[in-house]
Specification:
alpha+beta, three-stranded mixed sheet, about 45% helix, elongated, binds zinc ion
Length: about 160
């Protein structure tokens, strides 16, 4: 880091502080030659994450879009206000932890369904009915039955 005043490379950090949720660090530096003080900002560069859609088109990862999809499914359900955000963050963290830069949208959908299933079953069914585009009531019933089976109550028909 060159001193903006004299061009000296020998500078030292006199103060550091985190800005906006620690994604940015602001540093005060002092030039060891002319003692000019200046400020630098250091930001974490998030790795790119690209979504590959079913038709093969690619688009930049959009957390907000996932949040709004989850929020729609969770509308008026007895869950915390930030349930959609929390779930989206967990999904994004899981995708990033996999360390790949391209993710099929089907993977995101599957992760979202998995999360919703653990949060609220009505929200899960709502999301699944849109995402998996149930062809008819039989598809829907199969999905609902699987939830009842999990609870050990033996399905809707009984
Ligand atoms: Zn200097």
């Amino acid at each position: 880091m060159r001193c903006p005043h004299c061009g000296e490379r020998d500078t030292r950090v006199v103060d550091s502080r985190d800005l906006d949720d620690a994604a940015t660090i602001r540093r005060r530096r002092e030039c060891n030659a002319c003692t000019t003080r200046f400020t630098t900002y250091e930001r974490v560069e998030a790795a790119r994450l690209v979504l590959v859609k079913r038709d093969g088109t690619r688009q930049e990862w959009d957390r907000d879009k996932l949040v709004s999809g989850l929020r729609k499914a969770l509308t008026r359900r007895p869950v915390p206000d930030d349930a959609a955000e929390t779930a989206a963050d967990a999904i994004e963290a899981e995708l990033r932890a996999a360390g790949v830069s391209e993710v099929p949208s089907s993977r995101v959908g599957a992760l979202a369904m998995e999360r919703l299933r653990g949060i609220d079953q009505i929200a899960y069914i709502r999301f699944a009915s849109v995402y998996q585009s149930f062809e008819d009531l039989a598809d829907l019933k199969r999905e609902v039955d699987s939830l009842f089976d999990e609870k050990g109550s033996g399905g809707l028909a009984k």
